[in-house]
Amino acid sequence: xxxxxxxxxxxxxxxxxxxxxxxxxxxxxxxDGTVTAIDMREPSITVDGGVTIKFAVSNDTVFLKDNTKIxxxxxxxxxxxxVEYYHKGTESRTPSRLTKVELIYDASTR
Length: 110
What we know:
Elements: H1 2-23, E1 26-39, E2 44-48, E3 52-56, E4 62-65, E5 68-70, E6 80-88, E7 95-105
Parallel strand pairs: 4-7
Antiparallel strand pairs: 1-2, 1-6, 2-3, 4-5, 6-7
């Protein structure tokens, strides 16, 4: 009986630990959308892909166009981009770390 109770306690403890751990795990996510704002002071970019999200840009963020590195300065309002970011938590509008931005369509070439 004691072994059975100990096993049940262990199982419940592990389940609770796993559930709380999953809520704080980092998820790699992607989003396609149109650039609606660029702030060079923060720096950040805001993307509308059905939901509008503001992404903070770090020194680790990689910017690409046709597999060639570009810079944040090369992006413009109206460009269509694909972003890759790590997300932590349950609020979908709060990205945690922007890792890659790929310029899909340059609006200045219309």
